[in-house]
UniProtKB/TrEMBL annotation, chains A, B, C, D, E, F:
Keywords: Hydrolase, Metal-binding, Zinc. The keyword Hydrolase applies. This is Creatininase family protein. It comes from Nocardioides mangrovi. It comes from the Bacteria.
Length: 266, 266, 266, 266, 266, 266
């Protein structure tokens, strides 16, 4: 049990010994959802857990007091609810799950809780939960994306994605080709980039000012948006390493971040 | 009743006549919350409603089939729950309110529902609601910020805000000075820019990759983050007009945006 | 900001200055719902807000410490859920909204909260909420109808309504003809008085001992119960003024009403 | 099993035989709550069940197709939550209970559901439930008070109650003296009539236009409002018989009442 | 009121006098549900209440401080939701009901709460509620079956039930033949023992390691599992007396059982 | 991807190919909770997942069409809520999670869903969920314990546990010593067997007729009930292998078990 950084591998009383005000607890959260005919359902959970494990290890090596909690595999994937194999929580269930987790963590000595998130569909409710947990239990709460695509100048791999390779495309396929190549059906790599969707100025996916409520079959029966045909394990390796580096950098800032402690009853 | 674009000023049967598949319904949503010692509680609701009214009018003049619904004045302002005067809905209540509204709209002939949002604390739950409403009722759903600060090169007014003038600072104070100068206590303009908060690379407010769960008194007793001392009605006018222009542009894209119709029962 | 009695036009800190134990906060609550082919959807919200504004003004002039909160426009209109244009909250959502409002108000120095209600469908849940808010937050809570029809001896206008002009009939049409004549389609005034419904001794609308669960299309496709054809702006003026007078009288009693203070945590 | 009118004493398949579109199901609903030092906790449940049993019997004798369901003993008594012995459901629990009952009844051939209510604190949520059940399940729904005090000219017994003998006073004490004299502690009959409360014009208990949210200890530690000292078994007998007569009259109207059938899915 | 052990027959203040730390409150809980063509809907509620009444009486005679609360007649009978006459609470409603009851009891001086349960479908949620009530309100909580079939060596009556006479079979029919023979349709006694179901080693009803989610019409249209044709009032008498004896024995152990008191706020 | 039996490692479309009416989906469910000073928090999740993996593999080898879903690590551990390190879902959250999972699985071709449960605190709500999922979605649903202690005549290891080694005692410690000896703090093995608790006839843990609501600190500060001091890896190996064998036998019965298909909408 000596060197583990998996908190659940400790005993309860050990958590009282090893955790303190400055300890950072990291919860990987992903999804089990349709990712097209080429990627496994587990893609987002795999990515979140893999980045978390690598980042926690590196952060500890760098002297940070970081601990990893069990992965929340199933998230809010209602946009893929139509697809066989998708496991999803309703919005309320995910919020309750996150708040319950916050209540649980508040019983440990740790005060910093970080969600490392592998699924875009979780982002909004994580945003809600961060504040709920802070308000109810006084924890400092954080959420960050598991996958960070490096800025490689002309992003060759994603060249044909028109900036909207958000699900099952170049980046996700590449990272799974790196992490678990056996789980990618390379004979079925597909491309689905809805014409014109990337060209809107106001409306679009992440980063555009106008958000919209979409289901993944709004863009055709493949249920993906992106181009998997240009993915490669090499690109996946670069993405994974960059993601890990950024996560470690983020944990460093979280470690240095301070706010007045709060303790309010739920 | 001839020229109104307030949907609630029509009769029920008239909505069957004037609305169709291409009609766009705009719901302003704001907040009634503490905005420091200088700004009124109504700031966000006022901004959302004012921009909505101007944008709907301009969009209609430009030939779009746009209608305005009653403003949701009270939003999710739990970050200001500690402050007298803040009226706030819990996360679940806001989600239920938005989904109920979507259910109601689904009984009209309109298929496009837009939330024009004046309060940052509503963004996350709006993101959840967009998808809930699309999945349950088949509507096309959109959300966009009411306030859009123009990019004026060196943003003189916000110069001292270190990029984090998110609540009660230069932009909000300016826009209220423009819209309702009688509601600004210009004798109590304050500045509260937490040292260093804008300098983090990973962690921060909107736009930084690491989100965090904050309450407005985490940054001191003033309950604002920004610099109101440099605000001006002129800047407010520019912000308001830019916000309106952008909202009109967004409505134009929404008008042209098409997805296959869905009708699923709740 | 000097003379406003709109609480949301104050700053947060001002609410600490101007409010005290004896302050009375008035929340207009209405509905956006089908009112037949002649009346606007906004009828109930319009009535509640108009009476509230007039009554608050008069009460303040009479020396009472009364403040107006933003109108809750959308209420529980499930009886009109079938009609295009109706916006409605489910029962649970309305209760949560009211309780959340009570929680918010409990953070101000005021102890008296009044709902001025323009929609019959809200009455029952308001009754529930009054007690919830008192029990959870210790406020003194009140609810009263916005519209009070004066007793004019032989009620000529409502003569043909058999005492059941409860929705879209003489009184409501008259009051809108007074407040916003531009919103009444006088070319479509209709009458729908279900034969015999007023003649029951036990069973009926307000005032009869046996309540029943009705939807507005239970009484035919018009969705109203009453006679709009005899409405007039003059009658509307009398109703409006009487409603305001009664509201002021009620606020006077509320001002003098005292119960031991309670403060319980939610 | 021949003559029973207790529906629960039938077998399931028998309900298919004996019930039809015109059958009326009566659910007594009461409360188990503090009623002062002289009346039993069961007062309201006892009253509701006793009146229901007598009224169903009389209605059947008069040729109506009426059936009695099991009594809901515990209701919404949050106003007495402070008092040992009160058993109470939260508002949401009562609503869920009533809606679940409606869902259950919708699986029988009966279409008319009547709540005979012995507790004022249930009235508001019953009002909500009547409409929920009609909207969700298409049943015709009714609610009526179990206790009806006859108009005896100078109401001698209640003479000192100033019209507000709403809880534990002359009428309730009398009816229990009639139904179960062994359960009345006649050595502890008390009077608690808050000075002036009956004199308000606007504000007050049932019948006054301004409702307020009260807890029973708002009026002193006795937890009653009324005058038990003048109660008598004779008066109780008259009240009980009048209540039964009125309930039978109401069931007659309900029997003749018709609305178009609805069947909507929940 | 002298000798009653029905708590609801006391006044509120009396509960403060007669109850103490060692008092045991017994709540019978049953069901109103389809029991085949021969047994009344009330079977489970009748059994629970009858055993409770007998056991409380005997326990008091034996010197225990035991009190009976009103019966919860309607339980979680979703497995019979398809059958006319079944009245059922959804899972959430039953849990809320039980927790609300626990909250109510926590306001009395008693610390021990016992559910005497006549319906198998309630068992799981009772298990949940016992812990909820202990955790929230600090009560000591217990649940036990109302019906206990004596071990009579070769269980002649149930000989043909293959050990799975769980609903509407020999034991239930016998006990109703004993308690209320007028409610049994002896001309319609039936047998439905699904072939082979009792022969599984792993999978089966109570007692087998693998539980499964069944609805009562999974086993054919009769909606029972068991053999009513061999039932007798004599067997019912033996079962009833044994059930009562066991309940008394259980109350004796509950009386002697001690845990450290807890008081946590909900 | 060839031989995996982890469903989440397939693509969505593959699930349509490999799953059919006879496919069995196995969900391990455990807990992350205090297990005394010697066992890791992950004990129950580890046990469930390990037995599931071994059993699925063996069942597939035996020709069954069985697939493993991601483990639900966090369960209902409210009995350990007081202990640092316990992660727990509230009762409602667990029920929602299970029902959401059932809804998800209903979108695949599989019709049989099995929960392999490593934590006693999950049993009751699993029982509720099995029926909810069957009623709402028509699946055949099953739950079984992950750990099955072989009947070894005189159970030497558990000799001192008086039959109540339910948490952190001989069996659990032994199985973790077998599966992950590095996670057992063998220097802190403890014994806590509440005197007399095993001697009750009516009242007790699993198997006794009277259930009670306990928290793990009801039995002292160690938070365990059992005797870890006699645990051994050898015993753990026997328990693990027996558990796997029994799970395979159960899957065999589940494979052969048939009920009429149902499809009801939620």
């Amino acid at each position: 049990m000596g060197d583990t950084r998996k908190l659940a591998e400790l005993t309860g009383p050990q958590t009282l010994e090893v955790l303190g005000d400055d300890s950072i607890l990291v919860v990987p959260i992903g999804a089990i959802e349709h990712h097209g005919p080429h990627l496994p359902l587990v893609t987002d959970a795999l990515t979140a857990e893999s980045v978390a494990t690598a980042a926690v290890s590196a952060a500890v090596a760098a002297g940070l007091d970081v601990w990893q909690l069990p992965t929340i595999s199933v998230g809010k994937s209602d946009e893929h609810h139509w697809a066989s194999g998708t496991l999803w929580l309703r919005a309320e269930t995910l919020l309750d799950t996150l708040v319950d987790l916050g209540r649980s963590v508040a019983a440990t000595p740790a005060r910093k809780l970080v969600f490392l998130n592998g699924h875009g569909g979780n982002v909004a409710m994580l945003g809600v939960a961060l504040r709920e947990i802070r308000r109810h239990f006084g924890l400092m709460t954080f959420a960050m994306p598991a996958m960070r695509v490096p800025d490689e100048g002309p992003e060759l791999g994603a060249a044909d994605e028109e900036g909207i390779g958000i699900h099952g495309g170049w980046a996700e396929t590449s990272i799974v080709l790196h992490l678990r190549p056996d789980l990618v059906r390379t004979d079925r790599l597909v491309r689905n980039v809805p014409a014109g969707l990337g060209a809107w100025e106001q409306l679009g996916f992440n980063g555009k000012p106008v958000a919209f409520g979409w289901l993944s079959d709004d863009f055709g029966p493949l249920g993906i948006v992106g181009d998997a045909t240009t993915a490669s394990a090499d690109a996946g390796k670069r993405i994974f390493e960059h993601s890990t580096d950024e996560a470690v950098a983020a944990l460093g800032e979280i470690d240095r971040f301070e706010l007045p402690p709060r303790t309010r009853l739920s």
